Amino acid sequence: MTSILFCRNCGNLLINNGEDIIECDSCTSKHVATEFDNVVITTRSNKKSFPSKLRLRRSRIKEFDKEESASIKEKCPKCGHEEMNYHTMQLRSADEGQTIFYHCTKCSHKFSINS
Ligand SMILES: [Zn+2]
Ligand SMILES: [Zn+2]
């Protein structure tokens, strides 16, 4: 059976042709095939099961939100709730100002403002 797996180190695609040890082409780390038993993805499975880099990145952003955001008395333009979470981010160079991201604590509406 041929399975498509993902390197736990770097997320590179690994092809397992039934060997016990799979070596990653990208970071040369070795993986024991049986470690993947619970997460084996066959070529027929749907895209939802892919532990993609995108999903990894998304969960990092969530963590960042939790750490950096603070609440402010600001009216949500969508539901009218009067408390928003916000955090700021420097997107480009320092003299171009920063972007403030608002996030409604009630309806999760999100928007950003460039200052
Ligand atoms: Zn790797
Ligand atoms: Zn809202």
CATH class category name of the largest domain: Mainly Beta
Cα radius of gyration in angstroms: 21 Å
Number of helices: 1
Q: Strand fraction band?
A: 25-35%
Overall pLDDT, averaged?
76
The ordered H/E elements are: EEEEHEEEE
CATH topology of the largest domain: N-terminal domain of TfIIb
**What characteristic shape results from the CA principal axes?**
elongated
Strand order of the largest sheet: 5-6-7-8
What CATH architecture of the largest domain would you give?
A: Single Sheet
Beta strands, count: 8
- Helix % is 10-25%
- Largest sheet at a glance? 4 strands, antiparallel
Backbone structural class? alpha+beta
Oligomer: single chain
Number of domains: 2
Please give the alpha-carbon distance between the first and last residues. 56 Å
Ligand list: zinc ion
Describe the structure.
By secondary structure, this protein is of the alpha+beta class. The protein has 2 domains: 3-51, no CATH class; 60-114, N-terminal domain of TfIIb, CATH 2.20.25. It contains 1 helix and 8 strands. The protein has one helix spanning 53-68; strands at residues 3-6, 13-16, 21-23, 30-32, 70-72, 84-89, 99-104, 110-114. It has a 4-stranded antiparallel β-sheet with strand order 5-6-7-8, with no helix packed on it. It has a two-stranded antiparallel sheet with strand order 1-2. Strand 1 (3-6) and strand 2 (13-16) form a beta hairpin. The termini are far apart. Residues 63-67 have low confidence and may be disordered. Bound molecules: zinc ion (2 copies). One zinc ion is lined by residues 7, 9-10, 12, 24, 26-27, 29. Zn(2+) 1 binds at residues 7, 10, 24, 27. It is found in: Nucleus, Nucleolus. DNA-dependent RNA polymerase catalyzes the transcription of DNA into RNA using the four ribonucleoside triphosphates as substrates. A zinc finger (C4-type) spans 7-27. Residues 72-112 form the TFIIS-type domain.
